[in-house]
Structure formats: C-alpha cells, structure tokens
Amino acid sequence: MYKGGYKGKILRVNLSKNEIKIEPLSKELVRNYIGGSGFAAKILYDEVGPEIDPLSPDNELILATGPLTGTLWPTTGRIMFASKSPLTEIGGESHVGGFLGPELKFAGYDMIIVKGKAKSPVYLYIEDDIVELRDAKHLWGSDTHETTKIIQEENGDPEIQVAAIGPAGENLVLYACIIINLARAAGRTGMGAVMGSKNLKAIAVRGTGTVEVADFEKFMELAEEAHERIDKNPQAREMTKYGTPLLVAYKQEIGELPTRNHQTGVFNEWEKLSAETLRENYWVKTRACFGCSIACKKAFKVTEGPYAGTFSEGPEYEGLYAFGTNCGNPDFGSILKANLLCNKYGIDIISAGATIAFMMELYEKGIISREDVEGLNFTWGNHELIVELLPKIAHREGIGNLLAEGTYRIAKKIGKNAEKYAIQVKKLEMSGQDGRTHRSIALGHATAARGADHLRSLITVDQLGYEEIAKQRFGEDKLPEICNPYTEKYKAYATKITEDVYAIRDALIVCWYSCAWPPIFWIEDFAQILPIATGIKEFGSIEELYKIGERQVTLKRAFNVREGIRRKDDTLPERFLKEPMPEGPGRGQVVNLDVMLDEYYELRGWNKETGIPTKEKLKELGLNFVINDFEKRGIL
Amino acid sequence: MAVDYVHQFALLVLLNLNRKVTKIQKILVVDPEKCTGCRLCELVCSAFHEKAFSPIKSRIHIIKWDEKAVDVPMVCQHCSKPVCVDICPTNALYKDAKNGIVVVDETRCIGCKVCVLSCPFGAISWDTEHGKILKCDLCDGEPQCVKICKFDALKYVKADKVTLLRKREGAKKLSELVSLIVGEGFYARG
Asked: Is B37's Cβ below 8 Å from some Cβ in A?
C-alpha cells in the first residue's frame, strides 16, 4: 500500500471490551498530516470531544510514529503520546526518544490507539503479530524500573522495549509521565495519569520486521550525508560532550536562567550546575537514542555528600532548572537524586519542580505557613525537602496529595492571591525560559497548544547569536531586530514560521535537537527526504509542507477552542507582564504580549478578538470538518 | 548421502590438520566505553546487506544494560581458532587464507545452525525469513558500521596496531600528568 516509510497499520485497543483490532492507515490521513503529532491531532479531534473527561474511559491515548521512525535518517528514534490532558483539560501530547518508536515500526505498526478502561491492571504486549492484553496485577505499585525489568524477564527477552507508568500514574498525579528505557520521559501534560486511569500499567513492544523506504539508494546517500552534517557541526559535538546542561551557562550569560520561581533570570551559584562542572565531577557515560549521532544523554554519578552513590541518566537542562535554579538549589547531588526518583515514580520533572518552587514562593511571601504544610520547611534551596516530597507526590500522601494537582489547582484551593505566583499557562507549568529576556518565547508560552511549552515554537536562533541561520530561516530584512531578544518586533512572524516547521518535525518524527538547537536541519531538508522515504511526491514541496504544518497547528487550536480556549487564555503569569526583570543583562525588561498576539493571530488567520480560527483560514487549510463542527456547536 | 557426509567430515579434519594459522590483516575493534548505544551500526549493517532497515538482520548488535548505562557492541571476532569453522559439518564456514576473515559459503550451508549455538559471542544469527545464517563479512573490506560510528566505538585497524593503541590508551593518564608541567611539549609555539 505504501512505497515506504509507513507500515500501513493502526492498532486499536479497547480495554473495556478486551478487544484488539488492526485497521489500515488511511491514505488521506497520511497525505494531510504526514505522521506523529499530525495523526494524533486529527484522531483526537475526531474521536475525543469536549464532553469527554480526560480521566474517563472514553478518553483515548494515542501512540504515534512517523514515516522516518526507524530509518537511518538521524534522530528519528522517537514516538509521541497524545490524549486529552488531565492536567490542562485541553489537547495534551508528549514526545520521547529512546527505542520504543522504532521497535513499534519493526513490529509492523505506525500507531496505537487505546480506549476504555481495563477491569483490573493490564499491560499491552506486542511481539510482531502477537498482540495481547496481559495481567499486570503483580506490577501495580511497582516503579517504572521494576516494571520494565519484570516484563523483560517474564517474557525472557531483554530486547523488549517498555513504556511504563510508576505509582504517580497509578495514583493519577495530574502531571504523571510515561517512562521508556528507564530514563527517557514522555514527560508533559500528564499522559501517565491517562494510562493509570485506564488501568494500563505498561506497553511492551518487540518487533523483528523491517522499515522500508521508497528510494533506498537515494535515501542512504542523503541519510549518510545528514549524519556527516551532524558530525561536522560544532554545537552538535558540544552536545555530545556536555548535553543540554550547556544551556545553564548560556542562559546565565543572557540573564534568562529562571531562578526562584522565575523571580529573576540570574542564579549566582550557576557554576555549581554548569555543564563543565558536571562533566568534570559527575559524568560517567554518554548515551544516545536510536539512530542518533548527537548522543546528548549523560549518565552521572555522585560520589560525595549526602547523595553519594546516586547514579542515573540525566538531568537535562530542564531538570537543572526545575529542581535546581528555580528552587534556588545549587546542589547537584539532590537534583540527580530527584531526577532519578521522578523517572522511577513516573513524575514530570518540569511540573514537579515548578510546583515545589511555587510552594517555596508562597512560603516566602507568607501566603502559607509551616502549619499549612505539615511543618515542612519550604525555604529556597532546601534540597532535602525536594527529595522528600517526590515519593509523597507519587503516592498522593499527605501534602503530596495537594502537590499532585499542579500549580493552577493549588492556587485555586489556597486563594489569597496565590495564583499570582503560579507560573503556568493553560494549567501547564512553565518550562525553563523567561519571556522577559527572550521575547519570542513569551509569545510561544502564551500561545502553544499544550500550554506553557518550550518545544512547539522555541526559536533559539534569535537568542543564542545564530545570525546567519536567522537570516536563512526568516529573511535578511528581519535582521537585526530578529536577533534582539528584548524587542517584540518580528517575533510573531518568526514564531509562526518556527511553529509550522516544528509541526512537520513532530510529524516525521525527528528530534528537537537537530533542527531547534543545534539548528542543523530545516524544512528544506524535510522536503528533500520525505518523498524519497515515502514515495509521496507532494511532500517534496516546501510550500506544501508549510501548509501541512499550519494545518496541524490550526487543528490543535481548533481542538482547544472546542474546549473553551480563547484569546483571554493566551496569556502569561502577571510576573512576565508587570514585574520587570530585576537584574542581569535584561534588567528592566517586561513582555508586551498584546502587540505580538495581534500580529500572531493575523498571521495565523485567527480572529483577533476571540482567537478562534476564521472560516476562511479553516477552509484554506482543508479543515472543513472543523467548520461543520464549529457551526453545529455555535462556535462559528 | 551418508557417504558424502563421511567424506565431508574427513575433508574437514584434513583441512584442519593442514590449516596454517593465517595472519589477519585488519580487525574490527569495539570500545564499549565509547559506544553510546545508538544502534546506527545495526541500521547500516542491515541496510548494506539487506537493503532495508531491520536491526534483527544486522550482523552486529549492541547489547545494553540501561540500568548501568552499559552498551557493548557484539560482532564476529574472526577468531584465530574459530569454533564455528571447526564445528561446521559442511565446511560452509571457512577462514579465508588471504585475509583471515571467517566467511560463509552459502551454497554449502545446510542450515543446521550449529555455528549459531556454538559461537561464544553469539555473533552468528539465523535469518528466519530467508533461512540462512547471518554473520559479519567486514563489508568487502569497508565495514559500514565503522563508517557510520562517529564516536570511535568501532574501529577497523591493523591487528598488530591494536595492542599498542590499547597500551597508549592506558598510558594516557601519565602523559596528561606530564603535560601539567610541560604543557603541549615540543608542539608549543614560541
């Protein structure tokens, strides 16, 4: 059916009915959405309406790969999970590397769609043509590491790839994540809680088949060339040596290292968490995801102090931010420990760190007292507390039951103006950027489909001095303003383009760390490889790819609009709009969001007052089913 | 039939008796410490030999222990005294006299899989799809896995160089200590 790239099969699992079906991957879905995140957006729109509660059996959990998954093209070892998010109650998704995505393709499937709820805990077992729901009562309560090991052992095959939830997912912690290969997380938007709500402990996959491409010789030539480009890229080689912790120093330098719940962008003890420090004192091994020649993963070991003996893969920059700078904590041992605990319990590091930082600020401001929080000491930098809280969150034990709800809901519950300090957008805790000293991400955080997200539009080249690349991507006429992080000018334009290109990236699926930072590949590379992989000529047109990207962004917006999201929700915490950056190179900066929003909606063809995509735009993108749906629901 | 087998067996014994130890010129060296576990070697190996991406068909495999961050590339060592060659009842496996590579002659292979079971490295696998054995043939002298590995976890070098390179690696610490005093040594400018 397909010349290459796709396996042509979707696995449909209904846990309530204990039913497994295989359905063909429709050509229309492929042609209009390419794969990965695009597939998921369409299926979620069609099958998960606003009446469905995220933690109810009717919600669906989608696992999707793309046409390049499992091939030799660099960084294509990825898979994505999508569902309506229990944390944000809008479209949720999370992408992850490791080895699961390719394994699913080798087993013969492009996608899995899980619906319903099993009567008792089960895990989904896939070994090529064998697809079964197996009892997981003995796994319930186990952490992700134990679960992975037991599944591999009881099936006598250590090569089985496992996606597992830990106690956090079982206990419906709203930001529970899914863990693959012990240390790779589909972290954001609570996908682990969705699995937990379905009594689905794990998905285990073993595949011994083949991924074919349409023009094999040409594909090999281009893929090998692409690996060469990575090899010759100095930033990529830096990533090999240090990984994302590199960003600690870069961000400190430009005053965008979020510190103490985003109060400032400067962390005085940053050197204790710098990539150099980590490499010198803790680094043990460099590792990679499937088919990647960047290898940004680092295993670290702590040999001294209270956390001596802690050995784990990670943390990424976001972990150093979440449990480090943002909690005012320079102790690397505790961050590695917290990182390991999050992986075991299946907790999203960013949301967990942000929730703890938020509580620390409430304590600082006197909004909560020790009596309110079981006598615990929420002082900045109290790393023992961070480590102590994670098991409590995972088991919803005592104060952990409150923390498991995330910043938005805690603020609602506490009142007393606490929401001012909840650093979230659309109920998703913010990642480690600050719009005041990187203006384009202010717009990105405010508008991204899954909330305060850094992966759907973060431009990077406008901030880290990549003038040449900014010129190529956005046009020479946009310089110098485009590379000035303190001005709103052209940022809506660059955000729109970047978001559309990243939508294609997330459909292929290739890793963020090959086109965002370091900025090696871009849309022209995708237009070159896609027709060769799939045999679909239309994918060779850059214009067509932009359109498909825009279609995906708009469809995700439409899903959220149907859930009630409007322009008023595309905003930022007060801190970024009113409190000037207090120190550092960006001292005095605040975000003028409305200017960028107006421009962004205009470029997107969304109504400026409401933020709803216009009928004309929906029509232009071939989203007529959205028009019909909106008209029926009185949205348009 | 039976006579043929006896004949073959006799031939095998003879060959082994007369076998000269061939000197292998270049060997594939793996360095697990540098291996990132990305499995690109598996992809290019299957691509080169099977024209498709299928790690199961690769002649090299990365064996992992995620909990210890350990990744070990496992591949045919082209042993000096190869068990697979000794045990093969049809002489389908033999050591190429000119370069020392352990080669399979597919026309002679009867698919008994004794080599698969006997290799101490598990370096020979069985292709269930085509009913044949899969083993490293060093890609006609240009191993594709070495070419794609950007981390030097796989090297294709002259056999006699290997031990000296290992020694140099081991002595590196001392050299680094000395450079604290002499800097770049003679290479220093000025």
From this structure: yes
**What is the residue type of A558?**
A
Contacts of A450 (CB under 8 A, 6+ apart): A85, A88, A90, A91, A92, A93, A188, A189, A426, A428, A456
Query: Final residue of a domain: which of A407, A429, A451?
Result: A429
Pick A291's closest partner by Cβ from B39, B57, B147: B39
Last residue of a domain, one of A401, A429, A457: A429
- Band (pLDDT 50/70/90 cuts) for residue B4 is very low
Q: Which domain holds residue A385?
A: 245-429
For A322, which DSSP code? I
Q: What is the ipTM of this complex?
A: 0.95
Q: B66 CB near a chain A CB, below 8 Å? A: yes
- What confidence tens digit (pLDDT) does each residue in A236-278 have? 999 999 999 999 999 999 999 999 999 999 999 999 999 999 9
| Range list of β-strands (E), A76-152 | 79-84, 91-96, 111-115, 122-127, 130-135
Pick the CATH number of B2-158 from 3.30.530.20, 3.40.50.1000, 3.30.70.20, 3.40.980.10: 3.30.70.20
DSSP class of residue A430 equals P
The answer to whether residues A423 and A445 belong to one domain is no
At position B110, the amino acid (one-letter code) is: I
Structure tokens at A182: 């012990």
Q: Quick: pLDDT tens for B138-171.
A: 998 899 999 999 999 999 988 777 778 778 888 8
**Chain A nearest C-alpha distance from B77 (Å):** 23
* Average pLDDT of the residues in A601-607: 98
Which single residue is written with the structure tokens 């070697």? B41
Does residue A233 sit at the B interface (CB-CB below 8 Å)?
A: no
d(CA A312, CA A299): 6
